[in-house]
């Protein structure tokens, strides 16, 4: 019976803790005004002769501000940036867990809801269409 009381107490305690807000959380300094980037896919184009500009790699960049994260989905190849899809979304932080409300890849949802912040990197996992778990490591980059 003591275990049930402990679980009830823990549940009530957690329910009474206010929701974490990035603007009020001192932990937001781990990502505040930083940009993180990773490759999330690629598009290959078959050609008769090698053409370095025929395909592209899809990158996601996350730029954290006080009250939101600026997301940039970039399609790049050796010739430069082909296209960009920019949008804003909300985030929150609790300890070294960073939760991002919405991410996309190829315009479709990329179901990474939270990241673990480890040594200037954000590590997130998602389940792909083939039910295989995939890990994405977003490395901190310096924006000029």
Describe it for me?
Keywords: Signal. Residues 1-21 form the signal peptide. This is Lipoprotein. The protein is mainly beta and 144 residues long. The protein has a single domain, classed as Lipocalin (Beta Barrel), CATH 2.40.128. Helices cover 10% and strands 49% of the residues. The protein is built from one helix and eleven strands. The chain has one helix at residues 2-16; strands at residues 35-43, 56-64, 69-77, 80-89, 91-94, 97-100, 104-105, 108-109, 114-118, 121-127, 133-141. A nine-stranded antiparallel sheet has the order 4-3-2-1-11-10-9-6-5, with no helix packed on it. It has a two-stranded antiparallel ribbon with strand order 7-8. It is globular. Mean pLDDT is 81; it is low at 3-24.
Task: Give the topology, please.
Layout: H1 2-16, E1 35-43, E2 56-64, E3 69-77, E4 80-89, E5 91-94, E6 97-100, E7 104-105, E8 108-109, E9 114-118, E10 121-127, E11 133-141
Antiparallel strand pairs: 1-2, 1-11, 2-3, 3-4, 5-6, 6-9, 7-8, 9-10, 10-11
Provide a brief overview of the structure.
With 144 residues, the protein is mostly beta strands.
Overall number of domains? 1
Query: What's the helix-strand series?
Result: HEEEEEEEEEEE
**CATH fold topology:** Lipocalin
Task: Please state roughly what percent of the residues sit in beta strands, choosing from under 5%, 5-15%, 15-25%, 25-35%, 35-45% or over 45%.
Answer: over 45%
What strand line-up does the widest sheet have? Answer: 4-3-2-1-11-10-9-6-5
Mean pLDDT value: 81
Radius of gyration: 19 Å
Number of strands: 11
User: Which class in CATH terms?
Assistant: Mainly Beta
Largest sheet: 9 strands, antiparallel
**First and last CA, distance:** 60 Å
What is the overall silhouette?
globular
Indicate the low-confidence ranges by residue numbers: 3-24
Which CATH-level-2 architecture? Beta Barrel
Total count of helical runs of at least 4 residues: 1
Which percent bin holds the helix content? 10-25%
Helix-and-strand structural type: mainly beta
Protein name: Lipoprotein
Organism: Epilithonimonas ginsengisoli
Signal peptide: 1-21
Keywords: Signal
């Amino acid at each position: 019976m003591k275990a049930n009381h402990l679980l009830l107490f823990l549940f009530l305690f957690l329910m009474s803790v206010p929701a974490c807000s990035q603007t009020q959380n001192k932990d937001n300094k781990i990502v505040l005004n930083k940009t993180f980037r990773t490759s999330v896919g690629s598009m290959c184009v078959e050609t008769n002769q090698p053409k370095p500009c025929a395909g592209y790699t899809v990158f996601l960049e996350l730029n954290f501000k006080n009250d939101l994260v600026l997301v940039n989905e970039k399609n790049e190849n050796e010739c430069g940036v082909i296209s960009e899809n920019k949008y804003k979304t909300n985030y929150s932080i609790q300890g070294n867990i960073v939760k991002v409300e919405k991410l996309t890849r190829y315009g479709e949802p990329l179901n990474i809801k939270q990241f673990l912040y480890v040594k200037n990197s954000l590590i997130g996992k998602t389940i792909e269409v083939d039910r295989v778990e995939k890990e994405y490591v977003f490395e901190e980059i310096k924006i000029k």
